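We emphasize that the prediction below concerns an isolated chain of 633 residues; any contacts that depend on oligomerization or on bound cofactors are therefore not represented. The input was used exactly as deposited, without trimming of termini.
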Amino acid sequence: MACMRLGSKSDTLRREGQAWLCSSGLASDVTIEAGDTIFQLHKFPLISRSGLLEKRIGEFKSEDGSNCIVKLDDLPGGSKAIELVAKFCYGMKLEITSFNVVILRCAGEFLEMTEEYGEGNLIAQTEAFLSEVFNSWTDSMQALETCEEVLNHAEKAHVVSRCINSLAIKACSDPSLSGWPISGGQSKSSATDKPLWNGISFSKRLNTAINDWWYEDTSSLSFLLYKRFIKAVEARGMKPERVSGSIMYYANKNIPLMTAQASPVEEIVEASSSQHDHNNNNNNPSESDQRLLLEEIVNIVPTQKGVTPTKFLLKLLKTAMSLHASPSCVENLEKRVGSQLDQASLVDLLIPNTNLSVETMYDLDCVQRVVDHFMQMQLSMSGTSSPMTNDNAQMVDPSQAINSMTLVAELVDSYLAEVAPDVNVKLPKFQSLAAVIPDYARTRYDGFYHAIDIYLKAHPWLTESEREQICRLMNCQKLSLEASTHAAQNERLPLRVIVQVLFFEQLRLRTQISGWFFAPPSNFDTSTNRNQDDAEENGQLVVVGDVRDRVTELEKECLTMRQEIEKLAKTKRRWSIFSKMFARPKTRPNKSAEVKAYFAAKAQKEKVVMKIQEKMHEQAKTMIVDENGNIVN
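Result of the prediction step, given as a C-alpha cell string:
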C-alpha cells in the first residue's frame, strides 16, 4: 500500500472526552466545532495554511475576549478530517494513505489550502500522492471506496472519475502482462480455501477464470459507483461476457434473496466466499432495498443475445417476482428470457407463484408470456429476408432457428408434464400454453402425450368433450411406436383418439410393408441384408414376402370394427330415447337400465379396442417370412 509521510514534529494532539487539545505550551485561541467534537487550537498555524479559516477567524468578533469559535459542520470528513488537517498545519508527523487521501483532498479543497497559503500545501501534496495511488489497483480501489463518504466533494475535485478510469484501464488489461498488483478475491480466497462440494474449492474455481480477478473487489462498491465503473469498462471495449460475469457476481453478493432461492451446488460456488463475508459483516438489506437494486441491475445487463446466461436471467426473474418488482422490470426480464428461451432448462423455468389470488404452484402466466415473446421473435425473424437477422444485426441461420423451435417445444412439453399434476391448473391455461408451439416444431409428440396423460389422470372430472378438446392438440401421426402402444391401451383417452392412434399405426405399418415390397432390386439387396442382420439378432428373419392379401384383410377388419363402434353409439342413443318415452310422469325415472346400458357400452368399447389391438398384433406376426418369400408360420 502506498504511503506518504509528512511533517517532523511529534504529535501533541490529545483527546479528552469530546474535546481535542494541543499541548504546545501555549493557550489555545481558536475553537473549531464539528458536530459534538471540539478542537482547542491556535490561530497562526491555521490561517497560514487555510484561506477559509483566515476569513472565518478574521470575521469573528469577541466582546469578552474569549476564544474565536469557528463551526465547520459541513466540512467533508467531519472531525476525522479536522484532526488530520490540524496535524498538517502544525507540521506534526502525518501519514497519507489510500484510505485518507480522498478525505484530505476534499478537506483541502473546502478549506482553500492552495499554494497561495504556503508552498507544498495540502491540495498539492494530496494531488501528488493521488498520482501514485492511481498506479495501483488496490490503492485505487481503496480510494474509490472512501469517496462514498464524501461523494459530492470528491466529484467536484474529480477524484471519483479519475479513480474509475484508473480501475477501468487495469480491468481491461491482461494482469499477467501488465503486472497490475491484484489483491482481490483471488488472494483472499486462497488464504482460506475450504472445499465446498466434492472437493471444489474457491481457489480452483477462480484459477480457471483469469478474467474475473476484479469481480469481488468491484462488488463491494455502492451501485452508483459500480454502474459508472461498468460504463467505463464498456466504453473501453471490454467483452460483454466479462461485463455480464461481473454483474452476475455483484447481484449474487448484494441481493441475498437470489442466493436464498438457489438450492443447486453451482449457485453456492458461484456466490463463493464473498456472499459469506457479506452476510457476516453486514445486515441483509431490506426487501425494498433489494427490489430497487435489482431493478437497477436489470438496466445494466448487456443486451446482446446469449451473452448473459438464461439461467441467471431466470433467477433474476424469479427474484423480481418474489420482491414484487415494477411491471416494466418484469416485462424486460421476460422478453430477455424469451429471446434465448432455447438455452433454458426445465428446473430454471419452474417459477414459483407469488400471486396470492392464484392457487397454482407455478406461475403459468409468466411462462406463457415468456413463450409468447419467443414465438413473436421467431415470427419476426421468419418474415425478414434471408439470411435472417436479429435486433443486434447478428446473422441467423434458418436451420438454427428451427433447432431453437424444436428445443423450446421439448422444453414446453416437459414443463406441461411438470405442472400437469397440479389440480388447480385449469384446462384453458394448459391448452393455451400447449397451443403456442406449432406442429412443425414438434418432431415427436411423445412428450406432449406424456403431459396429457398426466393431466387427465390428475383431473378425472373432465368430461368426454373436454378430453377430446385437449387431445385435438396432439398429432397422433407423430407418436413413436412405444407411445402409440401406450395410447392404444390408455383408458383415460377418448375412444375417438384411440381409434385414430390405431388407424395411423395401421397406416404406418402398411407404408413400411409397401416400401419393402416395391423397393428396387439394388436397394432391396442392401436393405434386405441389413434387415436380416437386425432380425437375426432377435431370432427372426424379416424380409419381403406375399403380404398383399394380409394387408387387404387387415384393412377390412379395421373397417368392420369401426362400423361396429358406430352401431354401438347409435344403439346407446336409441336406448336413451326409448327410456324417455316410457318414463312415468311425476315420478322419478328408473336409472338402473341406463346405468346398465352405460357399463355395457363401456365394456363393449373395451372389447372392440382389445379386438383391434389383438388383430393388429396377430397380423404383424403373420407377416414374418423367410428370404425366399415363403411364409414361415
